[in-house]
Specification:
It is built from 13 helices and eight strands. By secondary structure, it is of the alpha/beta class. The chain has two domains: 5-132 and 252-325, Rossmann fold, CATH 3.40.50; 136-240, no CATH class. Strands 1-2-4-3-5-6-7-8 form an eight-stranded mixed β-sheet, sandwiched between helices. The longest helix has 15 residues, at 76-90. The chain starts with a strand and ends with a helix. The relative contact order is 0.16.
Length: 328
């Protein structure tokens, strides 16, 4: 069991809650949707034992961090500035950064726009792709909605709709979302995150509420997530998806320091992660190193789904340790 110290880092008028354990050089962990710093609990224990200060932040909108209402508060430009502030406060200005799910684009783009603060970066579940002009939701509409199919990112664009559905019973929503994208759901051949359902459906339609939940996330763990998300509600979590058009406006035309990250980088993904198949016939994991100048390789974790560092902590810790050791 991990017993970190919880601290708060200010970034202007935004407060970021950060869990910290260990002593030594800083490793900063950034969670995804819909998680909390708690998703990094296994990695925090491991790397604290290896002589690092390990910090895991609650991204704005989550847990004890600030949760502004405005969509523009959740652009990558704003979220990466939070990471930079945490690094300055806890890491003497530099850190190794790990990110999972939405935390991965936040980590990748912190390495891009605050290159002096990130000495190495590892992305889990979402490879690095440069932000381009335009709104990616237009692509998802073309691939799904225009074909009469449901896609959760498009569904999230309607104000207050997903907040009402998922917030009606957050613990149940968490169970169903986590299970649907896990390796367990794939092996059981049960409907998952990419289950085909018609446009007009809601997020949880067709998903399984497992009883019991797989052992990689205990009832107590699930309650931690539900309590942390209920603290602010779902608006900040969903607003990240609504802010993607702003990313194209703010970052899509930026060419300095370029689309190729200079730092040592690695990618880790689960074998059965549904992110791999969002676009039919195209496995985004196969191109994980395409835009990375000093790429240290891809690790695909057998049997794992989207929540790879929780589903297979030993394998992920080993891959991350190999990467960190390679930094010299």
């Amino acid at each position: 069991m991990i017993s970190p110290t919880l601290t708060t880092v200010a970034n202007g008028d935004i407060e970021i809650e950060v869990a910290v354990t260990g002593t030594g050089p800083l490793i900063l962990c950034i969670h995804g949707w819909p998680e909390l710093w708690w998703s990094w609990r296994h990695q925090m224990v491991h790397f604290a034992e290896q002589g690092y200060t390990v910090a895991a932040m609650n991204v704005r909108g989550y847990g004890g961090s600030s949760a502004p209402r405005e969509i523009e508060a959740y652009s990558l430009r704003e979220l990466t500035s939070d990471v930079a502030a945490v690094i300055d406060e806890l890491g003497d200005g530099t850190a190794i950064v790990f990110g999972h799910d939405w935390g991965a684009p936040i980590a990748w783009n912190t390495a891009r726009f605050y290159a002096d603060k990130v000495c190495a970066v590892a992305g889990l579940s979402v490879p690095y792709r440069p932000v381009t002009p335009g709104d990616p939701i237009d692509l998802w509409r073309a691939l799904f909605t225009d074909q009469g199919k449901f896609f959760y990112m498009v569904y999230f664009q309607e104000p207050n709709l997903a907040e009402a559905e998922l917030g009606a019973e957050t613990l149940r929503s968490i169970r169903m979302i986590y299970y649907s994208a896990s390796g367990d759901a794939h092996r059981a051949s049960e409907p998952g995150m990419t289950v085909e359902k018609p446009h007009g459906s809601v997020m949880l339609d067709g998903l399984v509420d497992p009883d019991p939940f797989p052992a990689w996330c205990s009832p107590e763990d699930l309650q931690v997530y539900a309590d942390g998300i209920d603290r602010n509600g779902w608006h900040g979590l969903i607003n990240r998806y609504r802010a993607q058009a702003l990313d194209g406006e703010q970052l899509g035309g930026v060419t300095d320091p370029g689309p190729h990250l200079a730092q040592p980088a690695t990618f880790i993904g689960g074998e059965f992660d549904p992110v791999r198949g969002f676009a039919a016939g195209f496995d985004i994991f196969e191109m994980a190193g395409e835009f990375l100048a000093e790429y240290r390789g891809t690790t695909i974790v057998d049997g794992a789904g989207h929540w790879v560092q929780q589903e297979a902590p030993e394998a992920v810790n080993a891959a991350l340790q190999t990467f960190v050791d390679s930094l010299g």
